[in-house]
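Morning!

This is the sequence you dropped in the shared folder:
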Amino acid sequence: MWIIILVVLIVALVLILSKPGSIHPPRINRQGRIEFYSKGMDAGFSLSEINLLWTAAKRADLSHPPSIYGSVEELDKAINQIAGSKKFSDRKGVEPETLILKKLFEYRKKVEMSRPKYRSGLKSTRNIAIGQKLTIRADGAGLYTSKVVEVEQGYLTITIPIGDPLPGGFSWRQVKINVYFWRKEDAGYFFQTRVVDRFYDRRNLNFRIYHSDNILRSQKRRSVRATARISARMYPLKGLEEANEWMESSPGLSCLIVDLSEDGAALKIGGRGKKNQPFKLQFKIRDEIVVVSGVVKRVQYKTKEDVSTLHVEFLPPPEVTRMILLAYVFDIDRTRANGNNEAQDTLNVISGISAEEPEEVLPLEEEIPEDNAETEDGVEELESVPDD
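The structure's back. Tokens below.
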């Protein structure tokens, strides 16, 4: 008789420990669930958080639930399950699901930024991509722009540097040149070299420059960016002390967000933009209103179209706003992956601005020399390059 009672007690104990809200992880023989809890604790989640993650993983019908701790695709499915249809702006900071969502977004960013494309960098100029934009500076001259057109074993071929007229007696072949560039989704780079020779390729004058294996990598990207097509309203501020999170009812300036991250964006706007201009930005992402403030860090102006691309940096947004932005950037519900990159809503985009591919985005945190304006193909821009 006592044996039957003991068996019943053991079964009851297993059922209690198997519940999502149990204090201890379930002690069962299914290797997948044991691995799930083990990896969850290694990732820094509490037992109650792992229980919620396990439930989300099962609802998302993941074939191998432990994979959410390394696969961004599987992790996004779990985040999407926990987020559900409830708006982030309707969530309270003390709710268990809200707290774990905050932690999951941090973990999601950590997993994303650990990908090889963010960690590994160029070791030599022999691996520079054709078409890479360059910013060149030499003693006795100003800042000039160029582009890689050919990569050979012994040299790089670049377009002739374009910028202000060269000073009298200046020769590119007699000076050491400093070359800066930003590699997309990677980091900023710097190297020094000299010009081998110059030659005409059909009608174009090009330079050949020596390769360098002493290439410095700096200003690694701090956040993940996503291409966008979101209409917005911009409100210039007199100073950042005017920044707030209140919704505006006045029209403001119409603009188009073409690149978005949790800490900044690239905006297209009619007319000539102003560097260092404080602003407030209001837009809509999937039925949620976002209000952020920040500063214009860099301006690219196209004279022919009379359109500027503003590269802006946000002030640290509230946690709810940050989750809205990250949900879009990571595309956790795969809306953008399915071809819906934010349809235009009631905020009409100004005439002449299209949702074309954004220009190359240089890091917002780079040091910017004052008033270094250059023109190439009708594009006047303030380049962001580090000092020597």
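Headline: Residues 6-11, 20-29, 343-388 have pLDDT under 50 and may be disordered.

More detail when I'm at my desk.
O.
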